[in-house]
Design a protein that fits this description.
Elements lengths: L3 H11 L3 H21 L3 H10 L15 H9 L4 H9 L11 H21 L10 H9 L9 H11 L3 H13 L9
Helix pairs in contact: 1-3, 2-3, 2-6, 2-9, 3-5, 4-5, 5-6, 6-8, 6-9, 7-9
Length: 184
């Protein structure tokens, strides 16, 4: 199994956009927070979050993403658990989310992007952000309109966590890595 350093180098090889890199770091941070909460292997969970969109910049179509990236990960020796979770985060892939890793990746992906958008419009970024302020923005369909509110709701439901608690977990996980995410 490749190391975190290997995964980071691979991610940087595939992804040049600062915004897509920050998104992956945010998802990675959320995955690390949940790994800690669930008593799971943090490195595996970080790698999964980091690499989930590695091919998106080069292959953004549903016919290619995340399939191209997962094929490359397989060739490089990444575990089936990681590859299946990455496939499952794309609702159109047809791959069911059966593991806690897969369910968590799906649950944090859209929410991390949405929380990032909320942080950009707040004077203090992630500092002091609450689930209430995030839920208020979720009700505004014009704000971060590309983010699927249904995926956020479904993700928390599949993970079996209360939406407020889920939002709080992702906020706190991202806040711990605020500098890396560009909010410090």
């Amino acid at each position: 199994m490749p190391t975190y350093a290997d995964a980071l180098a691979l991610f940087h090889e595939w992804t040049e956009s600062d915004s897509l890199r920050r998104h992956a770091y945010a998802v990675e941070a959320a995955m690390a927070g949940y790994a800690e909460q669930f008593g799971e292997d943090e490195v595996t969970w970080r790698i999964t979050g980091l690499l989930h969109d590695m091919d998106y910049e080069r292959h953004p179509s549903p016919e290619a993403h995340p399939f191209v990236g997962v094929a490359d990960l397989e060739a490089r020796g990444y575990s089936e658990e990681i590859r299946t979770a990455i496939l499952g985060h794309a609702t159109y892939s047809g791959v069911p989310r059966e593991t806690r890793l897969a369910k968590t990746l799906f649950a944090v992906d859209e929410l991390a992007g949405f929380i990032t958008a909320v942080a950009y419009v707040r004077p203090d970024g992630l500092a002091g952000m609450t689930p209430r302020s995030v839920k208020k923005k979720l009700k505004d369909k014009r704000f971060a309109a590309a983010v699927s509110r249904e995926d956020i709701r479904q993700g928390a439901e599949e993970l079996g966590v209360d939406l407020d608690q889920h939002i709080a977990t992702v906020i706190s996980s991202m806040a711990r890595e605020a500098e890396r995410l560009g909010f410090a």
